[in-house]
Amino acid sequence: MEWLVSLMGAGLVMVTLRDLFHTLWHPTRHGGLSRLVMTALWRLARRFRARRRVVGLVGPLAMVTVVCMWASFIVLGWAIVYWPHMPGSFTFSPGSEAAQEPALVDSVYLSLVTVATLGLGDIAPGEGWLRLVSPLEAVMGFALLTATVSWVLEIYPALTRRRVLAIRLALLRDSDPTQQQLDCTAGAVLLDSLATEVVRVRLDFTQYAEAYYFHDGEDHSSLAAMIGYAAALAERGQSAGRPEVRLAGDLLAGALRDLAAILDQRFLHTGAAPTDVFAAYAADHGRAQ
């Protein structure tokens, strides 16, 4: 029975590590528990029509919540591993009152101290197998800290790329180029560069799915509000007279279709055409195209 309980704790740790791996390091970033947490917080904020300032905190709050969830599950899982063997398989420092506490309390305390790599030493594993496996928890704690820092450092460049594209589209919309200005070599270069940026954003939504739950600022920096204008530019490029402009328009239209497919597949689930997907994207972020 003791080993069964310990195996349950090990299973909880493995489930947590799997979710952490799929969220941060898997090529497609298909996290399970983390995605559920982020989606739930996003829908809760949208359902109650929270103010933009509050909705803007959903992304950072969701990341903090997910990291806390991972840490809690790792601590709890290892505590369950220790629990059936406490206190008989552990040694206590002289004068320590830890042995007088309930076994579960001591197990959680030991797990917290170990995952934080504090190494206080008032409770130490005595049996050989525990002395071999308990340092693994300290390694997991260090890995979790490193993963959290790298996650933060990765997500904000992705958000910057998305907002740069949105601001560029806003500037183009404000300048309102004519068809004649677009139907030239410079117009082909412009459309081609926009297609490249759209592809980058598409990859960001694939590799950093949590970026979707970050609410952008004003409309000029919101891709949800500006993506419709990119589709309009693509249509104008496709109807241009110059072949290089038509090709660039086709490239931009293809990149937008691919982006719409990713948004719909991973977040919106409308099954609609790209134009409708972008409209749903704008509505989900409280924007109007």
Automatic annotation (TrEMBL):
Name recorded for this polypeptide: Potassium channel domain-containing protein
Parts of the chain that traverse the membrane: 57-83, 138-159
Start and end residues of each Potassium channel domain: 84-153
Domain of life: Bacteria
Key words of the record: Membrane, Transmembrane, Transmembrane helix
Keyword Chaperone: no
Protein's organism: Streptomyces spinoverrucosus
